[in-house]
Amino acid sequence: MRGEAKRYPGPANPAGRTSSGSPENPQPASAAAASPILCVDRDTARDRELLHLHSHPEPMLTWSSTATLLGTVASRDWLIPPGYGLWVPGGIEHAGSVLHAGEMVTITFSADRCPLTWTQPTSFAVGPLLREITTHLHDIAPGDHTRPAAEALMFELLTPLPAHHIHVTMPADSRARAIAEALLARPADQRELAAWADHVHASVRTLSRLFRAETGLTFADWRAQVRIRAAVPMLAGGTPVNATARAVGYRKPSAFIAAFRRVTGQTPGTYLPQLR
C-alpha cells in the first residue's frame, strides 16, 4: 500500500516536519507536544496486498474510502468495507489483506496522549463530515491554527458501532479460500457453488465438503453469515433495510430479514440508529 503521509509533531517526529523532511509552519513545542496524532497516511490499497502479523505500542485507526479490507486483530477477522473503519489499540497483534483495491486512510496516535479509551478492536462508520475532517488533517501543515479544533471534532465524531460478534471462519484450502475472499469483498455476488466450482477448477462435491469440513457450515450458510455481517454496519450507519438487503445480495427483503434472524436472533431493525 502506497500513498501520501502527513506526519505530525510528537515523539515520532520531534522536528515538526512533514514526511518529506521540509519544515512546515513551526509552532510552539508545547502545542506540538499536545497533538495525539503522529501520522495521517492516505494509501492506495492494491488487490491481494498483505500486511503480515505485527504489533506496535501506538494505537491506530484505518478506514476505507473505496477499498475492501480484511483485518485480523486479536485472532478475529474484521471486514472493513468502504465507508467503515477499524480501531486497533496499541500492543495488539494485527495483520491485513486487500480484498478489493481502492483508497484508504490510516491515522497513528501517540501511545500516551490519545484520548480514545477503546481497549478492544472496534469498528466505526465514516460519514461525510468525518471523511472531510480526516482529509483536512492530512492536507494541512502541522502548525495550522485549525488543527486543534479539527482533531477535537474528529474524536467527537468517532462513534463505535454496536458489537455484533458475527464470526466468519475462513477455510484454509486455497480453492475454498479464494471463493471466501471474493465473497467477503463482494457479498452481493450471486454465483452459486457450481459457478464457483468452474471458477476455481474444482468439483461442486469437493467444495461442499471443504466448506463443511473447514468452516463447520454449508456453503449457503457460510455465505449468509458473510452477508449478514456486511449488513450490520450498514444498518448501524442508517442504511434502510431494503437498501441494505439489495447491497448484500438479497433480491427480496423478506429473505434478508429471515436470514438476518437466523444468524443474529434479531431483526434488522434492531440495528437501525433510531431503534437502538
From TrEMBL:
<dbReference type="Pfam" id="PF12833">
    <property type="entry name" value="HTH_18"/>
</dbReference>
<keyword id="KW-0238">DNA-binding</keyword>
<dbReference type="InterPro" id="IPR018060">
    <property type="entry name" value="HTH_AraC"/>
</dbReference>
<dbReference type="InterPro" id="IPR009057">
    <property type="entry name" value="Homeodomain-like_sf"/>
</dbReference>
<protein>
    <submittedName>
        <fullName>Helix-turn-helix transcriptional regulator</fullName>
    </submittedName>
</protein>
<feature type="domain" description="HTH araC/xylS-type">
    <location>
        <begin position="174"/>
        <end position="274"/>
    </location>
</feature>
<keyword id="KW-0805">Transcription regulation</keyword>
<keyword id="KW-0804">Transcription</keyword>
<feature type="region of interest" description="Disordered">
    <location>
        <begin position="1"/>
        <end position="35"/>
    </location>
</feature>
<dbReference type="InterPro" id="IPR018062">
    <property type="entry name" value="HTH_AraC-typ_CS"/>
</dbReference>
